[in-house]
Amino acid sequence: MTTKQQAKKWGTLIEPFLEDGAKIMLLMFLSLAMLLFLIHTALALSHRYPLDYGEAPLVDQAMRLAAGQSIYRPDLSSPPYTISNYPPLYPLSMTPFVRLFGPNFWAGRAISLLCTLASGAFLALIVYTYSQDRTAAVITGMLFLAIPYVVGWSPLARVDMLALALSTAGLYVLARWPTIRRGLIASALLLIAAIYTRQSYALAAPLAAFIWLWTHDRRQALGLAGLVSGISLALFFALNALTQGGFFYNIVTANVNQFDVERVQRTWRNLWEAAPVLLVLGGVFLLLAPRRVKTWSLIIPYLVGACLSAATIGKIGSNVNYLLELSAALTLAAGTLVAWSREHRWLRVLLLILLALQVGQLMKTTLEGPVEHMKWRLHPTKELKDLEWIVQTADGPVLADEFMGMLTLHNRSLYIQPFEVTQLANAGLWDQTDLLTSIRNQEFPLILIHHFMGWPVYKERWTSEMLSAIIENYASTDFLAQTIVFRPRDVVESGPPGLEACPGAPWRLPTRGDLGMWWITYQLGIMGEGYENTVPVYAVADGLLLRRSNWNSAVAIQHDDPVRPGEKVWSFYGDMADGEDGESFIVPDFPPGSERVPVKAGQLLGYQGTWSGSPGRPIWTHLHFAVVPALEDGSFPNEIVGLVPEDEFSPEDVRLVPEEEPSPKEAELEFALDPSPYLGTIRSQVMGVPTWLPLRCQESVP
Amino acid sequence: MLDENGLPAENKSGLVLLAVALWVFTSVLGFLEILTVRAIILRIYGHFAITYGFYSRELQGAQVLGMGTLVVMGILCLGVAIGCGEYHLKHFGQPQSWRLFSRTIAVEVAILVLALFI
Question: Would the CB atoms of B118 and A363 count as touching at under 8 Å?
Answer without folding.
Answer: yes
